[in-house]
Task: inverse folding
């Protein structure tokens, strides 16, 4: 795939990954924006449309009126589509070559599957889609000839350290991989006394020391659920057993991941912590293009440190590892409970330390089942969300921790 006149749909263009994708396109104008989408941020989406002139924009129904008001006052010929049907349309449209899946959470599931089912190059920044559907997403890509390229910095680093093949799908059996190592910054509370975690505020949890991200993902990084989800994603994406995936704390966020080979070699990918690096690699693979990121100068960096994660400090990481071992519907239930718990924390309804308690309670009450169809996964997702909200309304966590 060359960059000449390639059309890209960016699902979640107003978020941090979407903005970084547009920044890479600014460096490489041969890529053409076919569609931009957002949930509620009509003003920013319209501003992006004015600059990039996409054929389509997609918004939720609640935000459509504001966008249309701006649209009638302009000479923009972008067509507005609404909600999930609009997302599926711009993800599957035959004129689209590349789909950046950057919608946070389960909300990006169906459009991500649509891109995979229609043979697109799928730049997967929405880890929850693979966490929830696992083998179903990969099967859809195999059947359609779609390419799944990971955009999470850790999985993109692993991908860069694997042998280059004609396919973006790698299997452990034919590449000699012993294990992969996901690195984790440890978030803002790596060294915070445990007793102080009870009083953490949403603003404190969103102050990541290295990465600029949305609030939900920032909280996931603070609890290390982000790494738990990435652990599951790595198992599915690279066909690895949980025993072949390791996690190391690396506060400097320079080494993004490592791959251990049978001959004793260890390959690592390094770069400044900037999402434009994996995005540029995903857009141009197997070639490389300008990302706009400053080159890494190791002489200017503090010493690189690595340590094992403390699972008592980060129970969400342990829960993710456990769900990876169970597979089936366990990852979908874990993800649903986490999304509800994080939203409740951001609204001030529960405390930071109560997030893993909600998740563990839901996991214990909803048994793991096989996940052969999307309908089964979505049903269990709904059950987990309903139970999570019920537990929060009953003030379960505060009572359990009192």
Result:
């Amino acid at each position: 795939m060359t960059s000449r006149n390639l059309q890209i749909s960016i699902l979640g263009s107003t978020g941090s990954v979407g903005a970084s994708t547009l920044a890479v396109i600014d460096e490489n104008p041969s890529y053409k924006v076919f569609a931009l989408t957002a949930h509620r941020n009509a003003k920013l989406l319209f501003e992006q449309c004015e600059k990039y002139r996409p054929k389509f924009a997609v918004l939720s129904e609640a935000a459509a009126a504001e966008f249309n008001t701006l649209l009638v006052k302009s000479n923009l010929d972008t067509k507005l589509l609404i909600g999930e049907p609009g997302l599926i349309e711009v993800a599957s449209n035959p004129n689209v070559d590349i789909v950046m899946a950057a919608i946070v959470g389960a909300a990006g599931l169906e459009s991500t599957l649509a891109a995979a089912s229609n043979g697109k190059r799928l730049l997967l920044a929405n880890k929850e889609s693979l966490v929830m559907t696992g083998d179903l997403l990969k099967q859809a890509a195999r059947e359609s000839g779609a390419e799944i390229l990971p955009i999470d910095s850790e999985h993109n680093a692993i991908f860069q350290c694997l042998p280059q093949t004609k396919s973006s799908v790698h299997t452990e059996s034919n590449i000699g991989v012993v294990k992969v190592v996901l690195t984790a910054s440890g978030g803002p509370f790596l060294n915070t006394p445990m007793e102080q975690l009870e009083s953490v505020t949403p603003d404190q949890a969103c102050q990541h020391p290295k990465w600029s991200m949305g609030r939900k993902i920032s909280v996931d990084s603070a609890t290390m659920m982000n790494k738990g989800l990435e652990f599951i994603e790595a198992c599915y994406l690279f066909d690895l057993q949980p025993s072949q995936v390791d996690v190391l704390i690396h506060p400097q966020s320079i080494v993004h991941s490592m791959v251990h080979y049978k001959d004793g070699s260890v390959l690592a990918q390094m770069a400044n912590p900037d999402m434009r690096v994996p995005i540029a690699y995903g857009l141009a693979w197997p070639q490389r293009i300008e990302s706009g990121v400053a080159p890494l100068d190791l002489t200017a960096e503090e010493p690189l440190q690595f340590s094992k994660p403390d699972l008592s400090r980060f129970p969400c990481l342990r829960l993710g590892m456990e769900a990876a071992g169970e597979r089936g519907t366990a990852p979908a239930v874990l993800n649903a409970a986490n999304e509800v718990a994080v939203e409740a924390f951001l609204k001030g309804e529960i405390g930071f330390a109560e997030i893993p308690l909600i998740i563990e309670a839901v996991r214990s009450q909803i048994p793991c089942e096989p996940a052969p169809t999307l309908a089964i996964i979505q049903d269990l997702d709904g059950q987990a969300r309903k139970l999570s909200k019920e537990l929060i309304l009953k003030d379960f966590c505060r009572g359990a921790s009192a």
Remarks:
- The two ends are 58 Å apart (CA to CA).
- The longest helix spans residues 374-393.
- Residues 7-151 form a domain with the Rossmann fold fold (CATH 3.40.50.720).
